[in-house]
Amino acid sequence: MWDITLDRELAKLIPEDSILRDEPMYKHTTFRAGGNAARFISVSDKEQLISLLGLLKASGAVYSARGSNDGGRAAYYVIGNGSNLLVSDKGYDGLIIEIGLKMSGCAVKGNAITAEAGTMLARLANAALDNSLTGLEFASGIPGSVGGAMVMNAGAYGGQMQDVVRHVTVYDTEDSRVLSLDNERMDFAYRHSIIRDKGYIVLDAEFVLEEGDRQQIEDKMRELNAARKQKQPLEYPSAGSTFKRPEGFFAGGLIEECGLKGYSVGDASVSEKHAGFVINRGKATASDIYRLIGEIREKVYADTGVRLEPEIVFMGEF
User: Fold this and answer.
1) Are 255 and 270 in contact (CB under 8 A)?
2) Least crowded by CB within 10 Å, which of 43, 109, 161, 231?
3) Which residues neighbour 102 within 8 Å (Cβ) at sequence distance 6 or greater?
4) Which domain does 90 fall in, by range?
5) Is the pTM of this model over 0.70?
6) What is the pLDDT of residues 158-209, one digit of tens each?
7) 64 catalytic, yes or no?
8) Does 166 participate in catalysis according to the annotation?
């Protein structure tokens, strides 16, 4: 159960009408599925976020993606656009902190852009376009935020965040301090960074780009977004690519090879357009999606010997 004694402490810092109770998480994830969070707060700025994280630590709350409570202590988790998240139908018995549009400042100086964690990647790419800066075209169609992109080293069409990031400002939840991590200290790898390993919270990131021709940048963005529309099931809720790319293979190719295109559990389906996407055809539950992902993994391993690893964070009890 949620620790209701925390409500009094939260109310000292957050306006009462900004603390949502039993908030449906389908509203805050791109899968459009999942149960309720006991408490939900969308922070207004970095200062409020840092104060809130300090309050939670002082209260004994733990930073945890996996669910309920840890040893009876209240849990909390930080999300961005919810584009890589599946919340259990049973909900999340803790506090969800959203870093969203209220924390989406974006400033350009020379060939560098500093963007807050809540900045959507499409907006970031457009800021680069408006200033004739090249290097972020690949990110223009990724449905995530800067914070999430740092966690996952987001990428597409041959580009990834590690190619353009100079510094990332994070909050260390363990030591209650703000750190500036350069590209090397981020320990970027395929769909990985140091952020989740250390329990850091992204505050902002600085991107260094190159001067380019505005028309060429715009043409490249249109080309990539047209390819996405043609090849990906953007008309359905999903979390994007469901699985990480296994070394030497493509997840979608393996899934298609195993005859799973269109395979469904309830309203959760393997996309007919791109087998690497699990989609919600309308009324899929989180349990449907979770079960389908598990069955895909079992079938692919049985037929090919390749273990698929989900890109998705599973929150709560499944």
Assistant:
1) yes
2) 109
3) 42, 43, 44, 45, 118
4) 5-101
5) yes
6) 999 999 999 999 999 999 999 999 999 999 999 999 998 998 999 999 999 9
7) no
8) no
